[in-house]
Design goal:
Number of helices: 9
Low-confidence stretches: none
CATH architecture of one domain: Up-down Bundle
Largest sheet: none
Distance between the termini: 141 Å
Number of strands: 0
Radius of gyration: 51 Å
Amino acid sequence: MQDRASPSDEALARAHDRLLADGSLQFDRIGFTPPSPPGWLRWLGDMVQAMGPALKWVFWIGLALLAGLILYAIVREILRLRAPSAKPTTPPSIADEWRPDPEAARDLLVEADQLARRGLYAEAAHLLLLRSVQDIAKRQPRALRVSLTTREIATLKALPDTARPAFALIGAVVERSLFGGDTVGAPEFADCRQAYEAFALPEGWRT
């Protein structure tokens, strides 16, 4: 048994028919022509189409270069990890910074030896002490004061430990000579000379 159309459906159908029969209304696109692409766009498309085979080569060459760069980075990292570690550069020690110039040290020893050959051992030891104090004043001018004794200078923190024994030995010999009246002989001067030479010329030097 078929269902009868409701009055509302029949009214809607008649309204639709009247709408389609109305000539003042347009439901179809009539006379529409899509715009043609500009000339430069057609030229670009033709050029890309002509370069199609070459673009394939460019793509594969670029891909090969990229793969080569990646491989190079991997190999370089592997070699860096396997390479022996570089030896750290040893900075100059404080003793090296304080050590006098070799030529100046040799000249000083020559002057002291000349005094010693004349029997002026106290003067020769005093010369070594005076030049040593001048070296300290040159490197640490704020560390020295006029009132400091040789023993006090030997305890200064600014003086490196490697230079302290030589300075203390020479200073003690000179102090005993100047203030204690002790005689400085060849053995005492030899000790002062050897102490200064051991610090100033670590490689050794003999007249």
